[in-house]
Design goal:
By secondary structure, the chain is α+β, with helices and mostly antiparallel strands. Helices cover 35% and strands 18% of the residues. It has helices at residues 14-17, 30-36, 42-51, 102-114, 121-128, 132-146, 170-178, 180-183, 219-229, 242-248, 272-289, 297-309, 334-343, and strands at residues 66-68, 78-80, 86-87, 158-166, 197-204, 209-214, 235-238, 253-256, 313-319, 322-329, 349-353, 356-360. Helix 3 (42-51) packs across helix 13 (334-343) and helix 5 (121-128) packs across helix 6 (132-146).
Length: 364
């Protein structure tokens, strides 16, 4: 029988939690974070610890030989002795030249990282005491930091791949735009022929998930998306989609199930994990944000994938003929989630251009 997750080692983050050398490990609530942020200089120390897990690094030359600038210690400004440039923890990150206090950013990161399906800008503004446009910008900056790095390992092992429609029912859209009398005469193509936006998701069984926007269902579109997310040495699981089945031939192993014939599982062949993620995305969109802009959709998907990767995991089994469910992997502590997203903030910039945001992979 699987045992309930007890202790850091069983939950997968034991090596990190075992080394309690800092004053930040035991932050478990927003009220505790706010209380500690009242101490002078504490928030800056926290942010540097989150930003540089392996020690302070110059973002210009990656050097470690630097000194604090005299008289500017409170602002965390440093002088690199290697490249002769100045830098701080916010340099070359979405926080670059921010006018908000670091305390506000730490609270926002804590709120979003601790949520199960994200936080809307309206609610985030109420929590932080800022305007909704400011909370909207902060939320997208944090989502940008949640994006996986380009050099991360691809999904491996058993990987399930499936696409899904994400958007309003075309019939409802037509009724709203043209009225019920006209809408009933408008033909709405089913499946991929509809005007709904679609996303392609790939999920490791018991592991990570990745999702990308797809423009259409052609082989030319799906092939680079699937192979960009899943290692070709993995075992691919798909439904009966002909394009995905054809792509599966390029993998070490491939199995599929035919949903049109009411086949949803055949032995270990199924796509239940990735379909669970699809349902998770739908609930998050309609329950938290209601609408997504096509321009910012990928950042929302990156955030939901981040929450999914750090969720607790459970296993079903039977004891004496009675089905039960126990946790085998605990959720990642919130402070470690914050450390992961801020440690990947280097080289990512987000600037407001009119009423939208522009991502800038800035090279310093």
């Amino acid at each position: 029988e699987p045992s309930i997750c007890s202790g850091a080692d069983a939950c997968g983050w034991g090596s990190a939690m075992a080394d309690r050398k800092t004053e930040f490990w035991d932050i478990e609530s927003l009220s505790e974070l706010r209380h500690r942020c009242q101490k002078p200089g504490w928030t800056l120390r926290l942010f540097e610890w989150l930003r540089w897990p392996d020690g302070r690094i110059c973002p210009h030359c990656k050097g470690r030989d630097h000194l604090p600038i005299e008289g500017r210690q409170k602002t965390g400004l440093y002088h690199c002795r290697r490249c002769r440039k100045q830098f701080s923890a916010t340099s070359d990150t979405p926080l670059h030249k921010t006018k908000l206090p670091l305390e506000t950013w730490m609270e926002a990161a804590f709120i979003i990282a601790s949520s199960s399906k994200g936080v809307s800008s309206v609610i985030l503004a109420q929590q932080l005491g800022v305007t909704q446009p400011t909370a909207w910008k902060v939320g997208h900056a944090i989502r940008l930091m949640m994006r996986p790095p380009a050099d991360e390992p691809k999904l491996s092992g058993v990987v399930e791949v499936d696409d899904m429609a994400l958007g309003e029912d075309p019939k409802r859209t037509n009724r709203r735009k043209y009225g019920a009398k006209v809408a009933k005469h408008i033909y709405n193509p089913p499946g991929r022929g509809s005007k709904k936006g679609r996303i392609l998701a790939a999920a490791e069984r018991g592991g990570r998930v990745r999702a990308k926007k797809m423009s259409d269902g052609s082989r030319a579109t799906l092939d680079p998306l699937v192979k960009g997310m899943a290692d070709q040495e993995s075992s691919l699981m798909t439904d009966g989609d002909k394009t995905l089945v054809a792509i599966g031939k390029d993998y070490a192993a491939h199995k599929s199930v035919d949903h049109s014939a009411d086949e949803f599982a055949r032995g270990d062949a199924h796509v239940n994990t990735v379909e669970a993620f699809h349902l998770y995305v739908q609930r998050a969109k309609f329950g938290v944000w209601h609408r997504w802009s096509e321009t910012h959709q990928q950042r929302y998907l990156d955030e939901l994938a981040f929450h999914w990767d750090h969720r607790p995991q459970f296993r079903k089994f039977e004891v004496g003929g009675v089905a039960t469910r126990q946790m085998i992997i605990g959720a990642t502590p919130i402070i470690l989630r914050m450390r992961e997203l801020f440690s990947k903030a280097g080289g990512r910039r987000l600037t407001r251009v009119g009423r939208t945001l522009k991502e800038d992979a800035h090279k310093m």
